[in-house]
Amino acid sequence: MPHSFFHNFLLLAGLCCMLPDSQTKDYRTTGDLDHDKNQEGPQCQNFAFTITNISLSLVQKAIHWPGQTNFVFSPVSIIAAFTMLSLGAKGSTHKQILNGLGFHLLKMPEMEVHRCFQHLLHKFLQPNYQIQMITGSSLFINKRLKLVDRFKTVMTELYSSEAIPTNFKDIQEAKKQINKHMLKKSYGQISQVVQDLPIDTALALVNYISFEGMLNGGNHVDHIVKEEFYLDTGEVVYLPMMNLLEKFYLKKDSHLFSWVLMQHYVENSTAFFIMPDTGKMQKLLENLSPESLNNIQKNINKRYVNLKFPKFTISATYDLETVMRTLGITQIFSSNADLSKVTKDAPVKVS
């Protein structure tokens, strides 16, 4: 493939369970049939479609965030965190969260939405998936405030989340506590999550994800050498490049103006590596949809590829308020927030 392969590179990594009927036509992992027969949990196909739509919407908006050239974030875990918070919200705050996430369009009871998240997050955290994925949310709350028992129970049972008493009167100590907690939860992978906190903070929501996939099918890196890597600025740098020569799922998709390489990981996890033609990133984002991803998976074929891929690590920290405002979710961050099902001791908002 030409050097333009390296321009405008977009990576989407997700799980097949987010897309109904999303297995490639000739791919089936060992044990999938038995797993399907014994699969527990609610039937959440409409839920999965909604989650995929809102996730892609966030990706499309992220490209316009000021000061961002590369970005990495997990729309699903962010959505899960705020859906969890909706359990503690009332009135217009509660309605705005669910409407902003598109759940008002689902013809299913609200508690079933939370059960679907429970089922999905349980899949993410299954150790037999052999994917090094660490994801979750932690709620840091002023230690003078008492959580409503019901909220504390459901956030733990449905979202595997936790509430941590914090002394926000000492902002420096609070930042240190949050960052130390995140470092521990991510097994040393995530540090310095919080750089600053407002002096009136009473409630802080921290959402985190760390992902490292293991290749399926016995793929191995032939060798790693330093080769040219072309930046958008035209500058050429030398980076360690992993080299693989074998069959991959590869397709030139005219609808997305892109080359698409699809890599199955162990179990049902799949990564899409989408490489838009030069100058076609915006077109790609406009056309990206659950239907387009499903269509790719149903029609993609294996072909021999000499794949050269940069060995890299990307990390980033985002202000969730900025992210959620793009979905019209604003009240929860304001003094008008009604989180009285989280705590009744004092009015609180999310920082």
UniProtKB/TrEMBL annotation:
One of its GO terms (cellular component) is extracellular space. PANTHER family: ALPHA-1-ANTITRYPSIN (PTHR11461:SF165), SERINE PROTEASE INHIBITOR, SERPIN (PTHR11461). InterPro entries: Serpin_dom, Serpin_fam, Serpin_sf, Serpin_sf_1, Serpin_sf_2. Pfam families: Serpin (PF00079). Keywords: Glycoprotein, Protease inhibitor, Serine protease inhibitor, Signal. GO terms for molecular function: serine-type endopeptidase inhibitor activity. Residues 1-24 form the signal peptide. It comes from the Eukaryota. Belongs to the serpin family. This is Serpin domain-containing protein. Residues 56-351 form the Serpin domain. One of its GO terms (biological process) is response to cytokine. The keyword Glycoprotein applies.
